[in-house]
Amino acid sequence: MKNADVKRGLWILFFVFPAFSVVFVFIILPLFISLFNSFFSWKQLIRSSFTGLDNFKTLFFSYPYNERFFNALRNNVKWFLSTMIVQNSIGMLFGYMMSRKIPGQGFFKRIFFIPVLFSIVAVSFLWGLYLRPNGLVNEFLKLVHLDSLVHAWLGEEKLATFSIIAVNIWRWAGFPSLVFLAAVDAIPVDCIEAAYLDGTAEWKMFWRIVFPLIIPSVLVIMVLTIIGSLNVFEQIFTMTGPEGGPNYSTDTIGTMFYRTAFGGVDSGNPAIGIGSAIGVVIYLLTFGASIISIVVTRSREVEL
C-alpha cells in the first residue's frame, strides 16, 4: 500500500472517528446493553439469573404488561397516522405554496417555523395550561359563543391523545414545510415551465411532476416521523403525567418504558429486564417501519 493511501486513510479516520464515537456511545452501545439486560431477571437494580426470552413473553402475554403495551402501541400508531397525514400534508402544502413566490413569503417562513425553535417541554407545559377546563382555549370558545365545543381537553379519554397530537402538529409543521420548500425549489424551472405551457392543471402538475421529484425529501420526513412517533415521551409526561392519563388513554411506549424501567407497572419497583425488552422492541419497530417506508417510497422515486 502506498504511503499516500495510508495517509489518506488516516485523515479519513481522523475526521470520522469523533462522529462514530458519539454514535457508538449514545446509540449502538446502549442498544446492545438493553438487549443484554433483557435476557436477565433483576432484583431492583441488581442483575440476577439468565431468563432468555421470558421478559419478552411477560411483555406480550402477561397482565398487566400486555394490556398496557398494546394500548400504548395503539396510541403510537395514532401519533404516526395523525402526524404523517395531517402534519406532513400541511407542511407539504405550505412548502409548495411558498415555492410559488406568494406575497409575504419571508414573513410566513419565519412565522411558520418559529414554534419549532421552542423548547418541547415549555410548549407542552404552556399548552397543558391552555387546555385546562378553565384554560385559554375554553375561555376563547366561550367568548365567541361556541360553548358546545368546550371540553376538558386533557381530561376526556377520547380527546386527550388527539389534543396532545394537535399541539405537536402546531409545533412541528414548520419543519417539513421548509424541507419540502427546499425540495421544490431544487426542481429545474424548465420542468415546471414545460408543464404550464402544456396547459397542465396545478394539482396534476404537483402529483405527476413535483411529487415524484421530491420523493427523497418525502422519504426523509417519513423516516423522521416514524422515529418521532415511536419515541413520544416529553409531551405526554409534561401534559398528562408519566401514566399517560386519564386512565392510560394517552400512554405511549415511551412513557410505559419509563414507568417500567424506573418504577414498575404493577409493583412500583423497577423492572429493568422488562424495561430493556421494551427498549429493544421500540428499536425493532422503528427499524422495521423505516425499512418498509424506504422500500415503498423509493418505488415512486424518479430521476431527472
Could you name the key traits of this structure?
mainly alpha, MetI-like fold, 2 domains, two-stranded antiparallel sheet, 14 helices
Short description, anyone?
By secondary structure, the protein is mostly helical.
Task: Summarize the structure in words.
72% of the residues lie in helices and 3% in strands. The chain has 304 residues and is mainly α. It folds into 2 domains: 3-37, no CATH class; 54-298, MetI-like fold (Orthogonal Bundle).
Relevant CATH superfamily of the largest domain: MetI-like
| Tally of DSSP helical segments | 14
Q: What is the tally of beta strands?
A: 2
Per CATH, the class of the largest domain reads: Mainly Alpha
User: What portion of the residues fall into strands of 2 or more residues?
Assistant: under 5%
Helix content estimate: over 70%
Q: How would a textbook summarize the main sheet?
A: 2 strands, antiparallel
Query: Structural class, from helix and strand content?
Result: mainly alpha
What does the secondary structure layout of this molecule look like, with pairings?
Layout: H1 3-37, E1 40-43, E2 46-50, H2 54-61, H3 65-99, H4 105-117, H5 120-130, H6 136-143, H7 157-172, H8 174-185, H9 189-197, H10 202-213, H11 215-230, H12 234-240, H13 253-262, H14 272-298
Antiparallel strand pairs: 1-2
Helix pairs in contact: 1-14, 2-3, 2-14, 3-7, 3-8, 3-11, 3-13, 4-8, 5-7, 5-12, 9-10, 11-14, 13-14
